[in-house]
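Data card: per-record layout.
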Amino acid sequence: MSTTSTTTPLPTLFLSHGAPLFALEPGSTGPALTAWGRQLRGSSPLRGVLMMSPHWMAHGPVVMSAARPQTWHDFGGFPRPLYALQYPAPGDPALAERVRALLGAAGVSSAADAQRPFDHGAWVPLMHLFPQADVPLVQIALPAHAGPEEVLALGQALAPLREEGILIVGSGSMTHNLSEFFGGERQPAPYVLEFSRWVEQALATGDVDALLDYRRRAPHAQRAHPSEDHFLPLFFALGAAGRSSRPDYLSREVMYGILSMDSFSLQEPAHA
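The structure for this 272-residue chain is written out next.
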């Protein structure tokens, strides 16, 4: 792929992908993602997407290198129409090579996977963000034993891609306690709102140290995330955006009472 720099680095994006039904039940978050994607494409030279999803974990960084990845319905028990959906975005082997080169320059070894399909943490939200499925997409695995600092460092290593027209996306969930998922519409659980707004305040004030230590400092962190996998992609987006970046929220919706769909772009202020 070309490494020609764009005039202004692209923002990064953290999006909450919710349940797989988000593909069919967009709520208010889906249209917000569509509007943001349309605006981005109208104002910036977008050449591809690099995404980290918690639904692909590996022992270390592995980069999708297929030219035409398949759409994987990696879930069960949902309505039949969900399994008929396809997201036929192209892959980008050259972008995969560029990702691995940047990781190598940062002292991080990686592998390529030419068989990996798109998991639902990628294609479900991208059905809203880029519904035409015409933007090349490459996924990078979340290292299984990484913590916030390690994932932040991965984002930092790949930050130069922002100047090359690549949108770096962390796909996860602002809250993700599926043991409390019973279905049906309910009012947002208070702990969901308290945790989500704590994260928003830390991002807005640039308190990266607090975010890295969120397991101890954030209210209800253990309840919001019994395991870290769906929160760690936030640090991928934050690392690529820079420690002085600030959020621009696309959505603060809560689905099913317990899934915060908080989604936001991250970019350093113009004066930074």
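Known properties of this structure: Residues 201 and 207 are 8 Å apart (CA to CA). Residues 12-267 form a domain with the Protocatechuate 4,5-dioxygenase; Chain B fold (CATH 3.40.830.10).

See the next section for split statistics.
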